[in-house]
Amino acid sequence: MSQTISAHVSDQNHGHVDQEGLKTLGFWIFLVTDCLLFATFFAAYAVLRTHTEGGFSAKDFNVPNFIIETFILLTSSFTSGLAVLSMHKGNKKGLIRWLIITLLLGAAFVGLEVKEFADLAAEGATISRSAFLTSFFALVGTHGAHVTFGIFWMIGILFQLSKRGITPVTTRKVSLVSLYWHFLDAVWIFILTVVYLMGVM
Amino acid sequence: MNKWIQTAKLSLLAFLGTALLSGCDRSKFIVLDPRGPVGKQEYNLIILSVILCAIIIIPVIGIFTYIVLKYRDKPNNKAPYQPEWDDNKFLEIIWWGIPIIIVAILGVFTAKTTMNLTKPPVKDVDPIVVQVTSLDWKWMFTYPDKKIATVNYAEIPAGVPVQFILTSDAPMNSFWVPQLGGQEYTMPGMSMGLWLQADKVGEYFGSGANFTGKGFAHMQFRVKAVKQEEFNKWAKQVQKDSPVLTKAGYKKLSKPSLEKELSFSSYPIGLFEDIVNKNGGIYYDHMNHMGDHTTMSDMNMKK
Amino acid sequence: MDNSHFFVTGDPMIYGADVSIILVSLAIIIYLTYFKKWGWLWREWITTVDHKKIGIMYLLSSLLMLFRGGVDAVLMRIQLAVPNSHFLASEHYNEIFTTHGTIMILFMAMPFMFALFNMVVPLQIGARDVAYPFLNAVSFWLFFLGAMLLNISFVIGGSPNAGWLSYAPLSENDFSPGPGQNFWIWGIQISGIGSLMTGINFVVTILKMRTPTMRLRDMPLFSWSVLASSIAILGVFPIFTATLAMLTIDRLLGGHFFTMTGGGNPMMWVNLIWMWGHPEVYIVVLPAFGVFSEIVATFSKKRIFGYASMVFSMIAISIVSYYTWVHHFFTMGAGANVNIVFAICTMIIAIPTGVKVFNWLFTMYRGRIRITQPMLWFMAFVPCFLVGGATGVMLAAAPADYQYHNSYFLIAHFHQVLIGGVVFGYLAGMYYWFPKIFGIKLNERLGKWAFWTWQIGFYVCFMPQYALGFMGMTRRMYTYNSTMGWDMGWAPLNMISTVGAFLMGIGFIFQVWQILYSIKHGERDVTGDAWDGRTLEWSIPSPPPVYNFAILPVVKGRDAWWYQKQEMQKGSYQKEAVKYEPIHMPNNSGIPFLMAVCFFIAGFGFTFEWWWMGIAGLIGVFITLFARSFQYNTDHFISVEEIERTENALRNHGSIHRTAN
């Protein structure tokens, strides 16, 4: 095993490893730790799921809302994949177009989530109403914050793309943001299952 | 140089030995002086673990001293020098093996004692129940059979297993009477069971062991073990002479403060259950933990 | 929130601290201005991404924090020296033990560990820097400003006082209102993010940045220990971040994760914080094991015994350490079966740890032992850690733990493993690698004074505490013998323990004196190989040039430098023609510092619930992230001429002319 790892270390760049590859590896490891962060929030949600204090419970979620949210986010994951495909074809315009569509879909998702939260709060189901709601808002909100961060990140990359085109550096950046986006999609599938579907069933 | 390391070490040990022994007679080491079956079982496990650890530590320190003395880097040192010797499967098996055996022995006894402590210490005597609530910064004891309550002291009959049922109406604390046995947490929303028993009549020191803020250091209490008749007499006396603990009275008592020893002739029905439930007790099944093998007829914790 | 108590008032000691803080700050500012050092400070230190300089800054900060935590310890011991003492009030005592624990673990042990990571790992694996030098600087500044955030709490706003792990619900708004607890949350949250990034950084550094000829199975054991520790960091620091975030939500937004009301579950806090907290102690102790492995081999002039089982035992420890957290609360009544499982897992950890001790002993066996300063600390570590480990096994026996839990027996145990294991280990590491990083050997005579006062102080301080545990004394009591007429006989042993604490304090003063004295008068190491070392870091000059290795070293096996020296002696060493190539290095950057300052502002704002300030700080963080993302000019090449110049200067300066591999 040690040999294979050493073999990856290319000596071409004056004894320096490939910087972009290095950053990609680091980002993968970061995603693993981010997974654990979500796992902790999931665990807290699992513990507190029934602690509703007689108020809003998981049965009362707005079904159409989370179905539409899911649909939008899954689509955006698909479009971010299309963006990467365009990039590999060297199609800068296509790349930029698909990225913009992805981030618009992301923004729509966040908008719907904000609306859901606002509706809940208007019903009196606020974060301080019960432990169940605290854990719900924390888990789903952490995901939403991640998506929001991803949107800003993509905007930053779009500027760089339009200025510099498809270079090894921007390629790596687009790959990472797309990886991040798929990761958030996967986390959302868990939220959909554990929070919403198991809640309303 | 090396000689005086040894001398220093020895004199240090001697100093510590005398320091530990002087000024404090053995009876002060209350953990090592148990007065009930629970404390005694724990004491036995402590002694066993000390012996097992000593079996490892003493020879290792011996070997260590020997090696350091023998293989010093001195020009005239005739001891063998093998700079490339770095592997010996046989030796490695020995020192993986010995700790495994020791841990296995200790593990078995730990498991046995852990299981034992979940049962009443003696089988042929009917246990009594004492409910314990830790408050900021005092202890309240309620006796469901006698319908009396006390603060900062508890009386129990000697020779009778006592099922302490613990909760808290304040940050988590820990209920510890070293001479009767080990401690258990008192936690808001939970009711926990702890079996203790005093073999002999006497007064035992108890304290809160888990930090709860400003007045924590003052959360000490007295457990007085008396003969069964005297216990009954004391309960009657309290029922007759002491004031009533009302709902308002409890509310006042539960506010942060320090209190002396108090006695109450009665308390609001279901006080303990209410305390557990209002702090989240409705969300848990109760009494399925250590200290629980009898169903408490007067505990109705399920939703 | 009531902000009328912004400045802590009312205690003469605090006023004294205020005055000394202002005076020291003024002195620093005047010094920097008078000697026109601001530019130097900015260029050479604040913006640096060089792992060696970052390591030095970690080391300095951790020694500073050791001082602060040590003062806390001494204050506590003064208070407890006699019964019914009125030296400190209850709240003040509670604040002091809280900051003592928090600072010693998170702001002393962790940065000391990162100091060793940074100063040693790249040199030991033949790398020119860590995998992400910029991120490394971010980590440092997050740690540093997080630590400062917690530290200012004692003059501004008030210190936290709910214990170093701040058990809920005591740490919730109902029982600990005000900024103190928030300082704790934000201080360790910010530095914790830095620790997580350091973990990622060193995992990748070790896996990817080794000199191409170094196989993992030839890697020095210290680097292995760093890998094991970093992997453990990756596993548990996310839990820590999330758990602190939950407490933040409770305190700032009125949530109910751990409250008594609203259906919250305080036991969940205890579980989550120990899921991080237990592996955390192995995170800090593993590198100490690594340090000792290097030291024992070097000063026994012998290969490390049982290399494979050393590596295996470290990995085993870091994995099993995830499954022991419940032993911190056997008394929570999780049930007999749960207690048994976690008791046995805890005991199992003792097995690989014990094996390591045997392997160290047999590394010395048939070796040639030189008793140098690092070796002295190793020799102190062995008996100390054995006893500490044994009391750990005693504590692991769950029913016996019911009698030790939260008593002074426990206090004595964890100080014995944390001081005897971690602190002795890191100090040994500091003595060992100080000549490498600074080119200066630390004075032997002062070092011995420090060593012996430390050792005697340690045993005098903590052995009585085991006895106090058996006498029923519980931890975190600010006073004793004052209630209900109980006289438990605790006074004499407490007095002895206090004497020991003072001795350790004197030991620390000796060390500071030793370092300052040695910087001025100490013996200079011109060989680059101060101890006749075995691993690659000793093959380059001390202090190493900015790029560490002019040419990446060729490694043929374990202890590469040792065998190269033997070949050189025999004359069989094939010196290849030196042909330098330009070296690719990262540029300095001010962004890490500015990012951490923004984090500090955010943390400070949220601490006082000044939302505008907290949000402004977070926006600042995003701006710095963006600024970094738009930076393309992030590295440069060192030219061949410059390398030649540097190498010639360094190597001609040395009395022994050395080959550059």
TrEMBL record, chain A:
Gene3D superfamilies documented for this protein: Cytochrome c oxidase, subunit III, four-helix bundle
Protein name (Swiss-Prot/TrEMBL): Cytochrome (Ubi)quinol oxidase subunit III
Pfam families associated with the record: COX3
Annotated keywords: Cell membrane, Membrane, Oxidoreductase, Transmembrane, Transmembrane helix
Transmembrane segments: 25-46, 66-87, 94-112, 132-159, 179-199
Organism: Neobacillus paridis
Compartment(s) of residence: Cell membrane
Source taxon at top rank: Bacteria
Topology in the lipid bilayer: Multi-pass membrane protein
InterPro entries the record matches: Cyt_c/ubiquinol_Oxase_su3, Cyt_c_oxidase-like_su3, Cyt_c_oxidase_su3-like_sf, Cyt_c_oxidase_su3_a-hlx, Ubiquinol_oxase_su3_dom
Family of the protein in this entry: Belongs to the cytochrome c oxidase subunit 3 family.
Domain Heme-copper oxidase subunit III family profile: 1-200
Chief localization: membrane
From TrEMBL, chain C:
Keyword Electron transport: yes
Listed InterPro entries: Cyt_c_oxase-like_su1_dom (IPR023616), Cyt_c_oxase-like_su1_sf (IPR036927), Cyt_C_Oxase_1 (IPR000883)
UniProt keywords, alphabetically: Copper, Electron transport, Heme, Iron, Membrane, Metal-binding, Respiratory chain, Transmembrane, Transmembrane helix, Transport
Name of the featured protein: Cbb3-type cytochrome c oxidase subunit I
Recorded family membership: Belongs to the heme-copper respiratory oxidase family.
Species this protein is from: Neobacillus paridis
Keyword Nucleus applies: no
Entry-linked PANTHER family: CYTOCHROME BO(3) UBIQUINOL OXIDASE SUBUNIT 1 (PTHR10422:SF35), CYTOCHROME C OXIDASE SUBUNIT 1 (PTHR10422)
Occurrences of domain Cytochrome oxidase subunit I profile (ranges): 34-556
Membrane spanning stretches: 12-35, 56-76, 96-121, 133-156, 183-209, 221-249, 269-292, 304-325, 340-362, 374-398, 410-434, 446-468, 488-510, 585-604, 610-627
